[in-house]
Amino acid sequence: MRHLKAFEDALDAIHEEGRYRVFVDLQRHRGQFPRATARFEHGERDIIVWCSNDYLGMGQDEDVLGAMHKAIDTFGAGSGGTRNISGTTRYHVELEKELGDLHGKSGALLFTSGYVANDATLSTLGKILPDLIIYSDALNHASMIEGIRRSGVERRVFRHNDLEHLRALMENDDPDRPKLIAFESVYSMDGDVGPIAELCDLADEFNALTYLDEVHAVGMYGHEGAGVAQRDDVMHRVDIIEGTLGKAYGVMGGYIAAHETIIDAIRSTASGFIFTTSTCPVMAAGALASIRKLRGVAGKNLRQSHQDQAALLKQKFRDNGLPVMDSETHIVPLLVGDPEKCKALSDTLLFDFGIYVQPINYPTVPKGTERLRFTPGPVHTEEMMNDLVAAILAVWKQLGLDEKAA
After folding, report:
1. In terms of DSSP bridges, do strands 35-40 and 25-28 run parallel, antiparallel, or are they unpaired?
2. 247 a catalytic residue
3. Which of the residues 73, 248, 341, 378 has the least number of beta carbons within 10 Å of its own beta carbon?
4. Triad 268, 184, 259: Cα angle to 5°
């Protein structure tokens, strides 16, 4: 086969760096999450999942599943086309209205994933706003980086959460050029939070638009689960909010919420929206049910339980001298600092203890900061946490990682 050697060389390099990724074949059991069965080439074993983005277990929620069953029984499987050509259903329309209302915006637009929402929107803004400059936080998600790159506009990368660096960059640019600051609320690898209010202050000062990625925060923060911007009472100051339906909401899809004119312009211009088959009605129905539930009392209780569980696991790691990284959110990253040992730790926990947590290596995080990223939730018990800590301590010593412990 032509050029096969180049592909083999690329894979060899990834293997040599210790960052080759293996997908774990999981069978989730309805109503029993985080318990699941992992299937391997030579057998199966029951496991506990510790790294799911289904933070609140809504992918197993009976109200969500009921809504999806009703939708598939009523509408069938697929949407039948793009949104413009027969692919818009009642569920798409109602979901977009719900998302706009959730974020206090007059419009919202549904995409097939959070990645597509970022990529399509950011790349399109450069076409709508000639001579635009985008200022991007250094730790923004790959989908934001790709969208900004594809926009073709000038871009400035400011040091993570560094307001003074951002100010210096903005002061050096023509004050009459359109500007946009792109940043996140919860940064999912370190678990820290962007200074939303202060970034909005800079946007006001320099007449810039704001673009906020809330994918790891929607459903999780704020009195209705609208995200950190709602929690901090600054949601009205953000021009464009991007979110996902595939994490705390437990289903699949992405979206943006903004002024209806901005939404209409993106809807009419973004190729990533126009030329993509729309989200299946069953997915839209499930997401709609999940959002509505999490906006109420049940959501408030789940969010509090989730924060309590994350805090408990962090404390257990600290009490046992394990190097948990500083995190002010529900993300619990455990620093390993070596790609091969990070993978070995993950593999041993899985095969010997039935504990599944995926290694996070370069390029997702910088070299030397490889880690295991835990996402405990309301469905994880303290007994599970105790078993987890005991297993990590045993493997930690085997791998010679004792010197990393506090």
Report:
1. antiparallel
2. yes
3. 73
4. 35
Q: Which residue has the tokens 């400011």?
A: 158
Q: Are 147 and 119 in contact, with CB atoms under 8 Å apart?
A: yes
Q: What is the pLDDT of residue 403?
A: 52
Overall average pLDDT of the 243-272 stretch: 98
For residues 367 and 307, give the distance between their C-alpha atoms in angstroms, rounded to a whole number.
Answer: 29
Give the H/E segment covering residue 13. Answer: helix 4-16
pLDDT surpasses 90 at 292: yes
What residue has token string 């301590």?
Answer: 393
The pLDDT > 70 percentage for the chain reads 99
Catalytic one of 5, 127, 179, 247 = 247
* Residue 142 token pair: 């790959």
Rounded CA separation 324/336 (Å) = 9
Q: Return phi, psi of residue 313, to 5°.
A: -65, -40
**Residues 170 and 207: beta-carbon distance below 8 Å:** no
Is residue 109 helix, strand or coil? strand
CA distances to 56, 269, 316, 317 from 305, rounded to whole Å, are 9, 42, 17, 19
**Distance (Å) of CA 117 to CA 144, 207, 283, 341:** 9, 24, 16, 35
Extract the tokens encoding 313.
Answer: 């696991």
What is the spatial distance between Cα 219 and Cα 294, in angstroms, rounded to a whole number? Answer: 6
Check if the beta carbon of residue 249 is closer than 8 Å to that of residue 290: yes
Q: Please list the alpha-helical segments (H only) found in 270-381.
A: 271-274, 281-294, 297-319, 339-353
* DSSP character string of 261-297: HHHHHHHHH-HHHHTSBPPPHHHHHHHHHHHHHHTSH
Does residue 359 have a cis peptide bond before it, meaning omega lies within 30 degrees of 0? no
Strand duo 43-49 + 35-40: pairing: antiparallel
Look at residue 14 and tell me whether its pLDDT is greater than 90.
Answer: no
Which residues does residue 243 pair with via DSSP β-bridges, in sequence order?
A: 255
Distance between CA 101 and CA 333 in Å, rounded? 33
Q: What is the mean pLDDT of residues 2-6?
A: 90
Determine the Cα–Cα distance for residues 162 and 199; give it in Å rounded to an integer: 10
Contacts of 178 (CB under 8 A, 6+ apart): 129, 130, 131, 132, 133, 208, 209
Separation of alpha carbons 202 and 210, rounded Å: 10
φ and ψ of 332, to 5 deg: -120, 90
